[in-house]
């Protein structure tokens, strides 16, 4: 019988932070597509409403895939399962397609200014980190 090495404290902190981040992502997806009222939408900047209205239909599904797989991967990481790596990879691919489309095909910089790139770049950076961290955790033997 083989035993897997115990992960360090940083692993647990990072895994919990990843879980919280991805819960927020799922909430934002649900909020944007299912919970946002007309009153709230009317209070948003017109440029943002225009971008949301002009997004392709597949955007909703890809966004959902990105955040739901991120949440699932975070749970798998907390359960110390190697499958977290593959699920984080799927989430990362969805995030890259979604955010790069958002940044370049939707012309958000032209419509909302250069500060509109900040959140997509943060989301991409965190998705990359989650994938490579889970890969490192598997390599360290923390995942089984």
Describe this structure in words.
This protein is mainly alpha-helical and 144 residues long. The protein has helices at 9-35, 38-43, 46-54, 58-78, 83-105, 108-112, 118-139. The longest helix has 27 residues, at 9-35. Helix 1 (9-35) runs antiparallel to helix 4 (58-78) and helix 4 (58-78) runs antiparallel to helix 5. It is elongated.
Entry summary:
The chain has 144 residues and is mainly alpha-helical.
Write a concise keyword list for the protein shown above.
144 residues, 0% strand, mainly alpha, single chain, elongated
Number of helices: 7
The largest pleated sheet is described as: none
User: Unreliable segments (pLDDT under 50, ≥5 consecutive)?
Assistant: none
Radius of gyration: 17 Å
Count of β-strands: 0
Write the H/E string, N to C.
HHHHHHH
Q: How widely separated are the two ends? A: 13 Å
Query: Which shape, going by the Cα principal axes?
Result: elongated
Helix content: over 70%
Secondary-structure topology with pairs:
Blueprint (H helix, E strand, L loop, with lengths): L8 H27 L2 H6 L2 H9 L3 H21 L4 H23 L2 H5 L5 H22 L5
Helix pairs in contact: 1-4, 4-5, 5-7
């Amino acid at each position: 019988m083989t035993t897997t090495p115990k992960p360090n404290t940083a692993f647990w902190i990072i895994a919990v932070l990843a879980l919280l981040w991805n819960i927020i992502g799922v909430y934002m997806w649900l909020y944007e597509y299912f919970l946002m009222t007309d009153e709230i939408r009317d209070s948003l900047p017109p440029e943002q409403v225009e971008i949301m209205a002009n997004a392709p239909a597949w955007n909703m599904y890809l966004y959902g895939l990105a955040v739901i797989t991120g949440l699932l991967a975070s749970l798998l990481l907390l359960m110390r399962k190697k499958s977290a790596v593959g699920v984080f990879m799927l989430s990362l691919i969805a995030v890259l397609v979604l955010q790069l489309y958002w940044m370049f095909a939707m012309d958000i910089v032209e419509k909302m200014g250069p500060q509109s790139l900040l959140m997509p770049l943060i989301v991409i950076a965190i998705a990359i980190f989650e994938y490579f961290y889970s890969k490192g955790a598997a390599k360290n033997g923390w995942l089984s």
